[in-house]
Design a protein that fits this description.
The protein has 6 helices and 16 strands.
Length: about 290
């Protein structure tokens, strides 16, 4: 995949993890994914923010927990927007809440942090110098974002109003968030992408997918939240390595349609998915 140089409004563009001990998280993720880190905050800053890179391209970041936020490690999803301030108005009008009102992040961009009506935290990014993740869909980089939610219809109303998202229902009933026109944008950077996806058996419209919808179901204590999925070369080896580094395998590696995946919690408890693309697992859709 070619390196990304920006996104279009309504597309997940960046991820970072808030950690009680950022330095320890840097050690964990550099050991797991081979990331190289740079602390981009001024020395006098009370918090740390380590940008992670693969082959010199930004992939994610590890930061301190913001002042006043619960001391809980978590991964955060950012959506590219033209205006963080205008998006803030849309969020409130659609029933969401502002946790952090729009503010400038030095010369990198302008951001805000919200919750949707069910309480899932979502960040927005109005880019200046920082153009989001440069490398995606390669081993050790972001592969997907997903919303875990109970009120699917309510989520459709909220995210449709805020970001213009619609939904695509796949074989087997799974639903995806789509942004009409996103496939056109991807095709410009990767000519022939639609043809390649069709040859692999992707359903019509899949090129517009920006995220997944994951109904929580019968988990009474599970809060609504956004999750992140990293591409890996070997889900089993990644699970073993995470355990070696002090993490925990929450869901052991298993085969699912198109992928072999595992759910991992890092050494401070932030959970994520590690997924290897396995085309032959497409057959599991009809199993």
């Amino acid at each position: 995949m070619p390196e990304r140089d920006g996104y279009i409004p309504g597309v997940p563009c960046w991820i970072d993890t808030s950690q009680p001990d950022p330095e320890a998280a840097v050690a964990f993720y550099s050991g797991l994914f081979g990331w190289e880190f740079e602390d981009v905050m001024p020395p006098e800053s009370p918090g740390r923010y380590f940008t992670a890179r693969l082959r010199g391209g930004d992939v994610a970041a590890v930061g301190s927990i913001p002042e006043g936020a619960p001391p809980t490690a978590m991964w955060n999803t950012y959506i590219w927007v033209e205006s963080a301030d205008q998006t803030a108005s849309k969020v409130v009008d659609a029933g969401g809440k502002a946790l952090m009102k729009p503010f400038d992040v030095m010369d990198a961009g302008r951001m805000a942090v919200f919750t949707d009506p069910e309480g899932a935290v979502i960040c927005v990014w109005q880019a200046k110098e920082h153009k989001g993740a440069r490398i995606v869909n390669e081993a050790g980089s972001l592969n997907f974002n997903g919303l875990n939610v109970r009120d699917v219809e309510g989520a459709k109303s909220f995210y449709g109003a805020v970001f213009g998202w619609r939904t695509l229902t796949l074989e087997g009933g799974a639903q995806m968030w789509i942004l009409p026109g996103y496939g056109d944008h991807l095709e410009q950077g990767s000519p022939g992408l639609r043809k390649q996806m069709a040859q692999m058996g992707a359903p019509p419209g899949f090129e517009d997918v920006v995220a997944s919808i994951n109904p929580i179901g019968d988990e009474p204590d599970a809060p609504a939240h956004w999750n992140v999925t990293f591409a890996v070369d070997d889900a089993d080896a990644t699970a073993a390595k995470a355990t070696e580094l002090g993490g925990k395998v929450v869901v052991p590696p298993f085969d699912a349609p198109w992928v072999r995946m595992t759910v991992i919690a890092d050494a401070q408890g932030a959970s994520f998915i590690a997924s290897k693309f396995v085309p032959e697992n497409r057959e599991l859709l009809s199993a």
